[in-house]
Write a structure and sequence with these properties.
0% strand; 6 helices; mainly alpha
């Protein structure tokens, strides 16, 4: 089968990881300009996919498989990556949606508010559970970092999901590719046989007697 002949470096999930590394290296460059980011990321993807296909020209299983790989990277990988990348850029640009973008003043004010709340709870509620409020004095000012870790983890998980899906598509390509090729060869063979049979029938068809019309 054609896909099984592809080297490991030219399989969909492997190429997706390489493409991700290139795109992520440039993603933050246009963080404040989503429209330009979309255009530039698409341009980089087209250049990288073209370069990877050319790089594997001598090692890959042929132009048909290379075209199938490029098509899936362009139409399956890129739309999902672009949406995630733009969302991540927007979160980073907004300071992870923290109050005042997580600037020093916002951190100090939020810490003081939590401290006052903790002291008030200590006086109103005689319960060791109020220690949680004092934990907030430390955690709330660190909210931007906590949000960054959380959203970063979700982002990496979503990217890995894309790579995993491309791995599944690669497995389908491994199974289907040979069937498609055999089907095409069978159709071509049947067409050639039918044309040869029709030509032979014309050649060996008896000529009608002189003066009679051919039905």
């Amino acid at each position: 089968m054609l896909a099984a002949m592809a080297p490991t470096s030219f399989r969909l999930d492997t190429l997706a990881v390489r493409l991700l590394a290139q795109l992520e290296a440039h993603r933050r460059t246009w963080r404040a300009d989503p429209e330009r980011a979309s255009l530039e990321l698409t341009k980089i993807a087209e250049e990288q996919v073209g370069a990877m296909v050319a790089e594997q020209a001598d090692l890959g299983p042929g132009p048909r498989y290379a075209a199938a790989v490029a098509e899936r990277l362009h139409h399956t990988f890129m739309p999902r990556y672009e949406r995630l990348a733009l969302e991540q850029n927007a979160l980073e640009e907004a300071g992870w949606k923290s109050w005042r973008g997580g600037d020093p003043i916002g951190r100090i004010v939020s810490g003081l508010v939590m401290l006052l709340l903790a002291v008030a709870l200590t006086r109103l509620v005689r319960n060791p559970a109020v220690v949680v409020a004092y934990m907030g004095v430390v955690l709330v000012p660190l909210g931007p970092e906590i949000r960054a870790l959380w959203h970063g983890w979700q982002y990496r998980r979503a990217l890995q999901s894309i790579v995993d899906d491309l791995g599944n598509i690669q497995e389908e390509l491994d199974r289907i590719d040979e069937v498609d090729l055999d089907s095409e060869l069978a159709r071509d063979s049947l067409s050639d046989t039918r044309e040869a049979s029709e030509a032979d029938e014309v050649v060996h068809r008896p000529r009608p007697p002189q003066g009679e019309r051919t039905p």
